């Protein structure tokens, strides 16, 4: 258990956060007294009748963060009541507001894929931990096993601590420069597409070309112009 707590502290917890004092639990508060976080825990819950869509959404985000932003691989946990949590580890703490702005930006990048940004910074299940009412456990899992848990509600028994450590010890944190660059990119409005240049007639802009210039260029391209419209007398 000491090794597990060491890994959780290395990746996700701040010394003055309630979770650092209590360790894994069903309602862990990851926010420090100063309103800072080192963990962005994004929930992906199953919608009624949506099959494994929540798992597909998690994969879209997890793969996109690595491919588009160069982030290290995140951790994945299965929640005790069904669904998943994607865990992003920050090397340096950021205000909760920045974490929410980041998730809001991801929501614009991948519409209808992420939960509302205000779900970030609220108490979450910090695995491994039991749900006494449901009799199931939240636990970190190997991402390759995620699809097999899409219809499950957590684990039926406590996961081995050594296995939980193994899922975490190879993970790295997002460097401060990586996170700030990603946040700036997500919040920068996309530049409007440049207007296409006017059609040219043999090197002349269309607005400068005479009717003879236009007819000559069309003839050179094997096109016979047809003038269907005339100016009123």
User: What Rg, in angstroms, do the CA atoms define?
Assistant: 27 Å
In the predicted model, the low-confidence regions spanning at least 5 consecutive residues are 201-207
Strand content: 15-25%
Question: Strand order of the main beta sheet, please?
Answer: 2-4-3-7-6
Q: Count of DSSP helices? A: 7
Return the structural class.
alpha+beta
Keywords:
233 residues; alpha+beta; two-stranded antiparallel ribbon; 9 strands
Layout: helices, strands, pairs:
Elements: H1 2-11, H2 18-22, E1 25-28, E2 36-44, H3 53-69, E3 75-78, E4 84-95, H4 96-109, E5 124-126, E6 129-131, E7 136-141, H5 161-169, H6 176-187, E8 200-201, E9 204-205, H7 211-220
Antiparallel strand pairs: 1-5, 2-4, 3-4, 3-7, 6-7, 8-9
Helix pairs in contact: 1-5, 4-6
Quick gist of this model?
The protein contains seven helices and nine strands, in the order ααββαββαβββααββα.
Task: Characterize the structure shown.
With 233 residues, the protein is an alpha+beta fold. 33% of the residues lie in helices and 19% in strands. It has seven helices and nine strands; from the N terminus they run ααββαββαβββααββα. The strands form three sheets. Strands 2-4-3-7-6 form a five-stranded antiparallel β-sheet. Strands 1-5 form a two-stranded antiparallel ribbon. It has a two-stranded antiparallel sheet with strand order 8-9. β6 and β7 form a beta hairpin. α4 packs across α6. The model is unreliable at 201-207 (pLDDT under 50).
């Amino acid at each position: 258990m000491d090794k597990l707590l060491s890994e959780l502290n290395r990746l996700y917890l701040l010394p003055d956060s309630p979770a650092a004092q209590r360790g894994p639990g069903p309602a862990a508060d990851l926010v420090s007294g100063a309103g800072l976080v080192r963990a962005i825990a994004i929930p992906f819950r199953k919608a009624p009748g949506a099959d494994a869509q929540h798992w597909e959404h998690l994969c879209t985000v997890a793969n996109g963060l690595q491919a588009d932003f160069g982030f290290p691989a995140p951790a994945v946990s299965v929640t005790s009541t069904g669904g998943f949590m994607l865990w992003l580890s920050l090397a340096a703490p950021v205000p909760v507001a920045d974490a929410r702005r980041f998730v809001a930006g991801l929501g614009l990048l991948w519409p209808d894929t992420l939960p509302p940004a205000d779900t970030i910074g609220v108490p979450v299940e910090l695995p491994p931990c039991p749900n006494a009412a449901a009799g199931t456990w939240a636990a970190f899992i190997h991402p390759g096993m995620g699809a097999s848990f899409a219809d499950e509600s957590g684990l039926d028994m406590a996961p081995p601590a050594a296995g939980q450590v193994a899922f975490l010890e190879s993970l790295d944190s997002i460097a401060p420069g990586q996170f700030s660059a990603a946040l700036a990119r997500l919040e920068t409005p996309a530049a409007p597409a440049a207007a296409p240049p006017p059609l040219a007639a043999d090197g002349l802009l269309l607005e400068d070309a005479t009717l003879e210039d236009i007819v000559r260029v069309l003839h050179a391209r094997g096109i016979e112009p047809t003038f269907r419209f005339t100016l009123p007398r």
